[in-house]
């Protein structure tokens, strides 16, 4: 049996060093490009997630305050709102008390329900900021099961912390083009404007702490949505007659 051997003249089955280095360089460039695109996408997704997470807490707090106002407020002398704002350790802080009263069988005034939203400086935290509290008391219980199981020594302390890390909590009453920082009238305000933020404040030249405007969340809440509103609708008697002026007539809604 004859064995035939073949010999490759001028050709090699292995890669040369230059080819291996070129492949490594190209592969490294592709890998760097892919990792760069992935990192940019991950940072963009993290930024969107952080922004959504940052909006969740303020939105839930504002919604809870609006639900308290809608549930307790009734137009009349039996409901009252008091609002005050102040600066606590450089932070803008506020307090709002919602009180609903009734008269018993002996015509004595009794507190049927009272809800207080207020912020206070967090002295126990290592980082500066405010703590938001909510208080509920009166003749009605929000949760009969939980309220009845509370220890007797805790019942006098009705303020419950809602969240911490606040850097701005302000409640104002709109009055024309102005906003009032205090409301003590027996009449209900037309609405309230609540401003809240968890952003890091910046110290101004005067030493005050201010939160960047783009990181402030504000919500306007109407107090009595069932009240009658008076609209002024211009009425034109004859549009074809030159010099006719519209006549304004009140309209009750």
Order of helices and strands: HEEEEHEEEEEEEEEE
Low-pLDDT residue intervals, each spanning 5 or more residues: 1-8, 241-253
Oligomer: single chain
Instruction: Give the helix proportion (percent range).
Output: 10-25%
The fraction of residues in strands falls at: 35-45%
Secondary-structure-derived class: alpha+beta
N/C terminus separation: 114 Å
Morphology call? elongated
Largest sheet geometry: 6 strands, antiparallel
Rg calculated over all Cα atoms? 33 Å
Kindly report the average pLDDT value.
77
Give the spatial strand order of the biggest sheet. Answer: 5-4-3-2-1-8
**DSSP summary, beta strand count:** 14
Number of helices: 2
What does this structure look like?
The protein has 253 residues and is an alpha+beta fold. It has a domain of 175 residues. It has two helices and 14 strands. The strands form four sheets. A six-stranded antiparallel beta sheet has the order 5-4-3-2-1-8, covered by helices on one side. A hairpin with a 5-residue loop joins β2 and β3. The longest helix is centred in the first third of the chain and has 56 residues. The chain is elongated and about 110 Å long.
Topology:
Layout: H1 17-72, E1 79-88, E2 91-103, E3 109-121, E4 130-138, H2 144-149, E5 159-166, E6 168-175, E7 178-180, E8 182-183, E9 191-197, E10 202-203, E11 209-210, E12 217-222, E13 230-235, E14 247-252
Antiparallel strand pairs: 1-2, 1-8, 2-3, 3-4, 4-5, 6-7, 6-9, 9-12, 10-11, 13-14
């Amino acid at each position: 049996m004859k064995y035939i051997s073949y010999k490759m003249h001028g050709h090699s089955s292995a890669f040369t060093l230059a080819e291996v280095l070129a492949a490594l360089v190209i592969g490294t460039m592709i890998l760097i490009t892919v990792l760069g695109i992935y990192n940019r996408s991950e940072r963009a997704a993290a930024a969107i997630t952080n922004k959504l997470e940052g909006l969740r807490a303020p939105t839930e707090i504002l919604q809870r305050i609006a639900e308290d106002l809608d549930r307790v407020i009734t137009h009349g002398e039996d409901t009252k709102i008091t609002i005050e704002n102040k600066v606590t350790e450089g932070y803008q802080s506020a307090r709002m008390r919602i009180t609903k009263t009734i008269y018993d069988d002996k015509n004595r005034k009794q507190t049927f329900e009272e809800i207080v939203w207020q912020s206070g400086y967090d002295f126990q935290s290592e980082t500066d900021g405010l703590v938001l509290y909510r208080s509920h008391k009166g003749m009605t219980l929000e949760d009969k099961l939980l309220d009845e199981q509370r220890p007797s020594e805790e019942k006098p302390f009705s303020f419950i912390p809602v969240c911490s890390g606040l850097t701005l909590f302000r409640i104002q009453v709109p009055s024309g083009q102005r906003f009032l920082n205090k409301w003590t009238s027996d009449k209900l305000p037309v609405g309230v404007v609540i401003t809240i933020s968890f952003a890091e404040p910046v110290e101004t030249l005067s030493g005050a702490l201010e939160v960047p405007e783009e990181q402030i969340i504000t919500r306007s809440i109407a107090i009595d949505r069932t009240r009658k509103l008076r609209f002024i609708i211009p009425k034109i008697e004859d549009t074809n007659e030159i010099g006719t002026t519209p006549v304004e007539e009140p309209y009750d809604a």
